[in-house]
Amino acid sequence: MIKKIETINNILIKHFGIPPRAKELPDPVDMLIATILSQNTNDNNSYKAYQNLRKRYPKWEMLLKARTSGIEKEIRIAGLGKQKSKAIKNFITGLYKTTNKLNLNHLNKMENINAINELTKYNGIGVKTASCVLLFALDRDVCPVDTHVHRTLNRIGLVHTSAPAKTFYKLNQNFPSGIAHSFHTNLIRLGREICKPTNPSCSICPLEKICKFENKSFEKKSNAKSRSFMLLDNV
To answer: Which residues are catalytic?
Structure first.
């Protein structure tokens, strides 16, 4: 699988280029909360929700005494306010109770799978959120799997799984070093712009020759230009 992953990554980089990265890694706690807010909304709304939350609670310690309803009010624009506010409150209070701190420095000494298990023990934090923290904030060789990555990899034939979480564990059993960021980000771009859930633009797909998808669509699209995208998935 390693060689196949590397082949796919090289083809995507040739087509899309190397995705830019932030000059400095974000704080892991910041990253985790931002990822929770990004679920099931667009990048603009999740960003506004994060800014609202940060303005109201400039220090995460303030969330320890905050009511869930108060958190919900600040993040309402991102949708699923009750669910997300509970997840954030549960994580902050649980982390402080466990470590007496509000940082994730203890993850630095953990293997990837143990770090994933450590984060997902908090209600409301799934494998995708945890893996985003590892990739984007801790620079680990871990590839998060959202619906786009799950769909594209199953169509390509790299995995044969029924859910994103299953794809994640299959994909990350022995992931190549140094390419997780480009692989993840370019697959999201592929899924948003070309390998869409319905009517995929197979005629312009850089992976068409190696893709095993049986229901390929070769209808020409009138607006095949790429759209801009953000690094965090909004599903």
So the answer is: 128
Shared-domain flag, residues 104 and 119: yes
Give the 3-state secondary structure of the chain: CHHHHHHHHHHHHHHHCCCCCCCCCCCHHHHHHHHHHHCCCCHHHHHHHHHHHHHHCCCHHHHHCCCHHHHHHHHHHHCCHHHHHHHHHHHHHHHHHHHCCCCCHHHHHCCHHHHHHHHHCCCCCCHHHHHHHHHHHCCCCCCCCCHHHHHHHHHHCCCCCCCHHHHHHHHCCCCCCCCHHHHHHHHHHHHHHCCCCCCCCHHHCCCCCCCCCCCCCCCCCCCCCCCCCCCCCCC
Residue 194 belongs to a domain with what CATH number?
1.10.1670.10
Q: Are residues 32 and 133 in the same domain?
A: yes
Q: Do residues 57 and 36 both lie within one domain?
A: yes
Q: pLDDT tens digits for 108-156? A: 999 999 999 999 999 999 999 999 999 999 999 999 999 999 999 999 9
Cβ–Cβ under 8 Å, residues 36 and 211: no
Q: Which domain holds residue 66?
A: 28-137
Are residues 97 and 37 located together in one domain of the fold? yes
Do 154 and 118 sit in the same domain of this protein?
no
Against a cut of 0.85, is the pTM above it?
A: yes
CA angle 166, 134, 35 (to 5 degrees): 80
Cα(93)–Cα(38) distance, integer angstroms: 21
Last residue of a domain, one of 110, 137, 164: 137
